[in-house]
Amino acid sequence: MILTSTGRGRAIRFQNGIFVYPAVTAGIGHNDNVGGTSTNEKSSNLFVLRPEAVAELKRRGDRYTLSYAGNYGQYQSSSEDDFTHHDLWLAGDNYFTTRARMGWGVGYQRRSDARGSTDRAGASDSPDRWRAPVARVIGIYGAPKAPGRLELEASWMQKRYTNNRLSTRGSDVDMTMVAGRFFFRVMPKTSLIFEMRDTWSDYTLNTSPHDNRYRKLLAGVTWDMTAKTTGIVKLGRGYKDFDRRDRRDPSAGTWEATLVWSPLTYSVVKLQTEQNISDSTGAGNFTDNRGYSLNWDHKWGSFMTSNVNAGMVRADYDGISREDNTRNFGVGVYREVGNNFRVGVSWSHTKRDSSINTLDFRRNVTMLTLETVL
């Protein structure tokens, strides 16, 4: 698969050859700091519902999917923080020859930024809601075992906020990305990677100082050497060029890495790390973000699984004296009930330490969930 979606569970089959994979997750839990504040924390019970469905059609070796994922949340004691998210995605994977193939997709997102998750000025009474049509295409040339493979990619997103306009109008943005990658095989399951990626951010506010182009030049290696270890590591440099001449154009060493280790067939450890120069959401000129995450999935017999995860993001703000270190930790235990249900209990903890003391916060979220598939 290239850009098509994957369904969960068993499918409902229709006579026209379409397979539909429905699933739904319902949950009840508690959030002890809904707004992510350092003082006057507000806690609330939380109810969530996450329906999803994937419709699949295969024709002459090609694959097409239409997928929907919803995420609805309702706070018992903080209704102003309720959220309704929708993600719709139509995609196709087309295989023209043994060497040439392409993945494409168009979609629509309707989501919100939770209160306290951005640095926009002014305290809003509700999450900042936004909508965005999106599109993406990847063209690939090169047989799976060929010594070289070329990938060309492009994506587009038109993000528009729909409420709290006094603080969100400066965040409406059109984003366009183009990238080229070349894979050179040096061993049967090891390839070198060379990549150039440009992302343009065009803000609709005429007076916005944030219009820019962000270029990444990367080189690295990807491998699938054994059944136990796979990974991709890319190192390079990132350059952010602002349209306004009075803005400093930053550059920094950058990296993207994913390492997967499976010491046992039923146990998987994943390490991810990335550096990015991100646009400001209201504080400073831009942010140098460095993120690290570790995830462990383990199966304890036929019906019981667990997940342990930890992560950290360090954010250095340009133009102001501010540095944030946000750490998170979570654990979950899940049990299969028959062939169609999975019950789970999870707990997550988030802590932000900022050089501005009033921005420190801690949050604990506990959830009891029930997943249903066919």
Give the topology.
Blueprint: E1 12-13, E2 19-31, E3 44-59, E4 62-75, E5 83-95, E6 100-113, E7 128-141, E8 148-161, H1 165-168, E9 173-187, E10 190-203, E11 212-223, E12 229-242, E13 251-264, E14 267-279, E15 286-299, E16 304-317, E17 323-337, E18 341-354, E19 361-373
Antiparallel strand pairs: 1-2, 2-3, 2-19, 3-4, 4-5, 5-6, 6-7, 7-8, 8-9, 9-10, 10-11, 11-12, 12-13, 13-14, 14-15, 15-16, 16-17, 17-18, 18-19
Number of strands: 19
Major beta-sheet overview: 18 strands, antiparallel, barrel
The termini sit apart by: 22 Å
Question: How many independent structural domains?
Answer: 1
CATH architecture classification: Beta Barrel
- What is the SS-derived class? mainly beta
In the CATH hierarchy, what is the class? Mainly Beta
Helicity, in percent?
under 10%
Please tell me how large the radius of gyration is: 22 Å
CATH topology: Porin
| Low-confidence sequence ranges | none
Beta-strand fraction estimate: over 45%
The rough form would be described as: globular
Task: Write down the secondary-structure element order.
Answer: EEEEEEEEHEEEEEEEEEEE
Mean pLDDT: 96
Number of H- or I-type helical stretches: 1
